[in-house]
Amino acid sequence: MTGDQPPPGPGPAPVDADPLAAFLKLARQEGALEGENFEAFVKGFRERADRVVAERLGRAETRLRALETENQGQRDSVTSLEGERAWLREILATLEQERDWLREILPTLEQERDWLRETIGGLEGEKARLRESLGTLEADAILRTRAIEDAGEERQKASAAHEALLAHHRALMSRLAGQLGEIASLSPLRAREVRRRLGVLADLLRADTL
Amino acid sequence: MITAVIPTRGGDACLARNLASVIDALASSGDTWEIVVVDDGRMLQSTPADTRLVSLPVSRGYGPAVNAGVEAAQGDLLLVLNDDVRLEETAVRRLREALPSDGVFAVAPRIVSPLARCGDEGGKTATFTAGLLEIEEAPATETHPTLYPVGCCYLCPKATFLSLGGYDDVYAPFYWEDVDLGYRAWRRGLASLHVPSAVCHHEGSATIGERSMDERLRVWHRNWALFHLRNIQSPRLRAASLGAWVASSLYEDRRVVLQGLAEAAIGFVPLAGTAANGLSDEEILTRVRGG
Questions:
Q1: Assigned domain for B287 exists
Q2: Is residue B282 part of a domain?
Q3: Are residues B270 and B176 part of one domain?
Q4: Could you say which of B70, B253, B262 has the minimum Cβ distance to residue A22?
């Protein structure tokens, strides 16, 4: 830059450097600790000390409020957790009651279970028996059906035989009627012939009646 | 000519999101312009279009990167930007219009940002409280003085920036370098102005956010102490601030804070020729508050 060149700036001070001693040294060098200047020095010291301490207090109070807020938050959390714990205890008590009740009814349930098992065993036996009866009935039904079918066939056969016999008898009667007609027309002089032919017809009828 | 100087540490994605708005705002300014992207640590994957790249092999942080970009700048005006800033189209023109020819170091827009409690990072005032300079937001609807131009977006004459010595590398890699620059400008009677009619949008700590909280705490307190040691000239205010640092050293309990204070106290080298000159500390704060 043109114009007055500023002196070089301060570099980093040692970490443990004491600004108090350095400023007091400057104050002494500049005569700030003497005469009227001393009054101003003291006034500046006192008022700034008040402010710095007030600022520290302010920061401490802010920190305190933050901690109180945090503390309150933790208290709220504890209260909430305690409420949750009480609720869990209530649930646990209920569960324990339920457990005791279950323990009490367990023998009854076990008895009921045994009874049911027995009943189931009985029912299964009955079921087997019924199945067996059903099988027998089914076999009987088959036999009966078959017998009915056989009877039908037999009846048909008998009916057919009867029809055949009837036809045979009708044919026989017709033949007899013819023969008798022929015999009737014979002359009485041919009585011997008539008797012979009547005898043939009688044998024929006799053979059909045996 | 306006030179936009944008330091970045591998901010390809940020630049891809925001560079078009920068180009639009520069184009709408009525001035000629260029964009210098400073690749702090050579971490960019590619060179953004319509920009000139200044590549720094070793990352040293925001202040040194801006200083390198300014050295390369050809414009007579500097638009210093973070890579995570999106400009509204009229922003540069309105800043340009609000920048008077003399008596002002820089003009800063309304910086819409999630980092600001009031929603606007652009306006800043300060009080000596309990021995130390404490910065406060100063939202406004009209242009008004501000303690310093917030580093994420401001417009200033390059010559003024250079005459002030630019950002002091002692604050690298980040924090308080912009307060220091604005305060040194006020010491010379050069104001910084907050111009709410100009608007930009800051995504917020895109680069610093990568650092650990311990590192940020350490660097913040180191640079806060360095700012006092290097800038406060009023004997009473200086004595009060030394009393305050002694109290902090005595009562602070955060190790990284004590480490940062130790770095400031032990590494401080009194500036030659800093005997009272320019505006007093009291006068600076009075003017910042519009007095």
A1: no
A2: no
A3: no
A4: B262
Would you state the pLDDT for residue A175? Answer: 84
Q: What residues of B are in contact with residue A31 (Cβ under 8 Å)? A: 235, 239
Among residues B290, B227, B291, B215, the alpha carbon closest in space to that of B259 is found at B215
In angstroms, the Cα distances linking B64 to A56, B78, B178 are 35, 15, 12
B290: closest CA among B110, B183, B138, B151?
A: B138
- Give per-residue burial for B230-255: e unless 16+ CB within 10 Å, then b: bbbbbbbbbbbbbbbbbbbbbbbeee
| Residue B57 CA: distances (Å) to CA of B8, B39, B83, B160 | 13, 8, 19, 27
Structure tokens at B172: 């690298």
* DSSP state for residue A9 in the 8-state scheme: P
Domain housing B224: 213-274
Residue at B196 is within a domain: yes
pLDDT higher for B2 or A173?
B2
Residues B132 and B224 in one domain: no
For residue B74, what is the domain's CATH number? 3.90.550.10
The pLDDT of residue A6 is 38
For residues B178 and B191, membership in a common domain is answered with: yes
Q: What confidence tens digit (pLDDT) does each residue in A61-94 have?
A: 999 999 999 999 999 999 999 999 999 999 999 9
Query: Do residue B95 and residue B56 come from a single domain?
Result: yes
Q: Do B267 and A11 touch (CB under 8 A)?
A: yes
User: How far, in Å, CA of A10 to CA of A14, rounded?
Assistant: 12
Q: Is the pLDDT of residue B209 over 70?
A: no
Domain assignment present for residue B41? The answer is: yes
Residues of A (7-46) whose Cβ lies below 8 Å from B: 7-15, 17-20, 22-24, 26-27, 30-32, 36-38, 40-46
On the question of pLDDT at B277 being above 90, the answer is no
Q: How far apart are CA A6 and CA B8, in angstroms?
A: 23
Kindly state whether residues B166 and B122 are assigned to the same domain. Answer: yes
Cis peptide before B173 (omega within 30 of 0): yes
Token pair of A64, please? 């305190």
